[in-house]
Design brief:
Elements lengths: L1 H16 L2 H4 L2 H5 L6 H31 L2 H27 L4 H16 L17 H32 L10 H25 L2 H28 L23 H30 L7 H14 L4 H25 L5 H25 L7 H26 L4 H18 L11 H27 L20 E8 L2 E10 L2 E8 L2 E7 L17 H10 L6 E5 L15 E6 L2 H7 L14 E6 L2 H4 L8 E6 L14 H10 E10 L8 H11 L2 E7 L5 H5 L5 E7 L40
Helix pairs in contact: 1-6, 4-5, 4-7, 4-8, 4-9, 5-7, 5-14, 6-7, 6-9, 7-9, 7-14, 8-11, 10-11, 10-13, 10-14, 10-15, 11-13, 12-13, 12-15, 12-16, 13-15, 15-16
């Protein structure tokens, strides 16, 4: 593949150098341009955008088993891809400044050939030595896996549109139509990867397929280059000849115009990321729900750069202020309204805000000779939004304040959009004078909205304790809050009658609770109740004289430490150091400090850190990391379970907490268990709870156990509540090479 592609590139360079256009440029000018030539440019741009969007989750899945720490890997990958995308746009702009089109094409052919030499994408057999920063290691892996191909693809959209604008092909007067094709390609890949590609093909097949599609793109891109050379515009549209492009007269200063491009691309980017974080952590922690805000973001680009842009963006701008007030009230009041309606309010606000800003970008688009510069600044603005939300905001805000800031900015610029209606420069009659006055009022309204929006949207919920707490019917008190790379943690004290307890929350996911009053403060609660499945497992293990050492993946509030007896050793594996600080602080939780056994904590991804543990070390390995929407898939694959078996003693048990309201993980465990020749049991404790259970904070839960032989289950084998896992017909076992969340989704 590499040698063939490189050979094609060399031959193509020679062919271009000998093309009749080089010796007789008038030949192409006299030729009739093909009517459907624009389709090739649109197809090439769509193909490049699809490849870019497919590459991001694909490379993330390749890296995850080597580094672990799911959210950190995905976020670091996103930052890497945004940076490379920006570099690609910058390089495309620099190439467009070269006066000779044939040199532009030649340089791009050389880059395509160099990228082809690195295919197919994947991690090298020899990986770099570990460094202290997981983010740096992720960037190293991503650069080695797909760095150069991704960079070359990033150049495609602005460069192809520039070539199209410099041609005399039909439609070249409005090159922004090709930009619509780019966003459609991104949208198709965003939906197509989890729905089609991931369920049907393992990673090895995905990388091969991506390589072949890259070859298709290369052929399309080279064809576009030839068309641009063969049919150049008789007069280049550098002096405003492009009739569909409107230059804002109030932005004659180019740096002011560039700043507006930055602002109107930054605001939708940070709004989209803020909406995604708020919805997936506080409203609807549903797997893959993050694709919905991103799809809306892309759709607004498609509509904004279409013929209906002015009408739709104006109407959307009118909705921003009332929607901001509604969303602000929902955030401030924490109203228990139906999840669907709350999500819809946030998503409609996202559409309106993005549409208002992207509509301003369309209104301020430059002439074709500055096309690549325009896209470069759009890329910078989008990247700044990503950096602000993922790097800056977690360092300076405890709450999701960046989301409310984005809403405030949308209110302001939505008001400006209402005031930006074009009016005659002169007002010869009373009607036009009133329109001018109305425009000034609308600008003032935009400024007022900018000032009031932070209040309406509830900027920084740290102000909430200063307000009447009538919405806190259960008498909550915030004891501790911390924001890290992995999310926002809050410890709350609640009171009900004579009882009071502490709860640890990560978004909408409860990670543990403890009563303040003994003896209840020493009792396990929630999913680890003594009469529940977790209690059965520890009852069996504690009845064994040889039980000494347990590995527990996921610390939470440290509830499981209550089961540690004298002469036993519990080792917790926890990804986030903030959770360790919370669980070990006796002012918040005392499960660890009150434990009768030895308790220690290993910080880091369990699959990575457990590799450093000697084999046959644990009598019990218990995994409790699958309760949220973003489950760590790499902890439940065949390779992961093979690791657990190596670290397990001959008659030990591997237990999985399978309670998840959106995903059914039992088929995954059943398939892997069957493939590895293991035996399994599961208990689904989802019946009605008694009043005593509710009083002592028992939660419904499901657990599954894997082991080598039926005898290893001990007394659990005779417990009627524990039944074998049932394999789903034709269910494919999950591996590091293959997984499919849609297959286990609870529809």
């Amino acid at each position: 593949m590499r040698s063939a592609t490189a050979g094609i590139s060399i031959c193509f360079i020679e062919a271009v150098s000998k093309h009749p256009l080089r010796t007789n440029p008038k030949l192409s000018i006299r030729s009739e341009a093909p009517v459907h030539g624009w389709l090739i440019f649109a197809a090439a741009t769509l193909c490049s955008a699809s490849l870019l969007f497919v590459a991001q989750p694909m490379v993330g899945k390749l890296i995850l088993p080597h580094l672990g720490g799911g959210p950190a890997v995905w976020t670091s990958c996103m930052l890497f891809f945004q940076t490379v995308l920006l570099a690609g746009y910058l390089c495309a702009h620099l190439v467009s400044l070269i006066n000779k089109p044939v040199i532009q094409l030649g340089l791009y052919i050389l880059l395509l050939g160099a990228a082809a030499l690195t295919l197919p994408i994947g991690l090298p057999e020899t990986l770099p030595d570990a460094v202290d920063s997981p983010a740096i290691r992720t960037i190293q892996f991503a650069a080695m896996g797909i760095g150069l191909p991704f960079f070359v693809l990033s150049m495609a959209s602005p460069l192809l549109q520039f070539w199209f604008a410099r041609s005399r092909l039909p439609g070249s007067g409005n090159p922004y139509g090709i930009y619509i094709a780019s966003n459609i390609g991104s949208l198709l890949a965003l939906v197509g990867y989890p729905v089609v590609i991931e369920p049907l093909w393992p990673m090895s097949s995905q990388t091969i397929g991506w390589t072949w599609m890259g070859l298709v793109f290369a052929i399309l891109a080279l064809t576009c280059g030839v068309l641009a050379l063969r049919y150049p515009a008789t007069v280049m549209p550098t002096n405003g000849e492009t009739p569909t492009v409107v230059e804002e007269p109030t932005l004659s200063n180019r740096w002011v115009q560039r700043f507006s491009w930055l602002v109107f691309s930054f605001v939708p980017s940070t709004l989209m990321l803020g909406t995604t974080h708020h919805l997936t952590s506080n409203i609807a922690p549903v797997p893959m729900f993050w694709t919905v805000p991103l799809a809306i973001y892309l759709l607004t680009f498609i509509v904004a750069f279409s013929a209906v842009s002015r009408v739709v963006s104006l109407f959307s701008a009118m909705l921003v202020a009332p929607l901001s007030a509604i969303v602000g009230w929902l955030i401030w009041s924490e109203t228990p309204s139906p999840m669907g309606w709350i999500s819809a309010a946030h998503l409609v606000l996202l559409w309106s805000g993005c549409m208002a800003c992207h509509g301003r970008l369309w209104a301020r688009r430059p002439k074709a000779d500055r096309l690549t510069e325009f896209y470069l600044f759009l890329s910078i603005g989008g990247a700044l939004g990503g950096v602000f939300n993922t790097v800056v905001a977690p360092q300076i805000f405890v709450n999701l304040t960046e989301y409310t800031i984005a809403i405030a900015l949308c209110c302001f610029f939505g008001g400006l959009r209402l005031g930006a209606l074009r009016l005659p420069k002169k007002s010869p009659n009373q009607t036009n004078r009133r329109l001018v006055q109305s425009r000034r009022i609308q600008y003032l309204a935009g400024l007022v909205l900018f000032v009031l929006a932070p209040i309406a949207a509830g900027v920084d919920q740290l102000l909430m304790p200063l307000l009447p707490s009538v919405h806190h019917a259960d008498d909550r008190t915030l004891l501790y809050a911390e924001r890290t790379f992995f999310g926002i943690y809050k410890v709350q004290q609640k009171k009900s009658g004579s009882g009071h307890w502490h709860e640890l929350w990560h978004g909408r996911t409860l990670h543990g609770m403890q009563y303040d009053q003994p003896p209840w403060s020493l009792a396990p609660t929630t999913y680890y109740f003594r009469s529940g499945p977790a209690g059965d497992i520890f009852s069996e293990m504690l009845s064994r004289p040889q039980f000494q050492h347990a590995a527990l993946v996921g610390l939470g509030a440290g509830t499981v430490a209550t089961y540690a007896a004298e002469n036993t050793h519990f080792t917790f594996f926890e990804l986030d150091p903030a959770v360790v600080r919370i669980a070990q602080d006796p002012k918040l939780f005392t499960y660890i400090t009150d434990s009768r056994g030895k308790v220690d904590v290993v910080t880091g991804d369990a699959r990575i850190t457990m590799q450093n543990v000697p084999d046959a070390q644990f009598d019990l390995i218990m995994l409790d990391a699958f309760g949220s929407d973003a489950i760590p898939v790499h902890l439940i694959t065949r390779e992961a379970i093979e690791l657990y078996l190596r670290k397990l003693k001959p008659h030990g048990l591997i237990a999985f907490h399978t309670t998840n309201w959106y995903l059914d993980l039992e088929p995954v465990l059943a398939a892997v268990s069957y493939q590895l020749g293991l035996v399994s049991l599961a208990r689904r404790d989802f019946g009605e709870l008694t009043s005593e259970d509710l009083r002592l904070a028992k939660y419904k839960s499901g657990w599954a156990i894997l082991t080598r032989t039926p005898e290893d289950f001990g007394a659990l084998a005779g417990n009627a509540l524990w039944t074998p896992l049932i394999s789903r017909e034709r269910f494919r076992p999950w591996t590091d090479d293959y997984s499919d969340l849609l297959e286990v989704f609870r529809w």
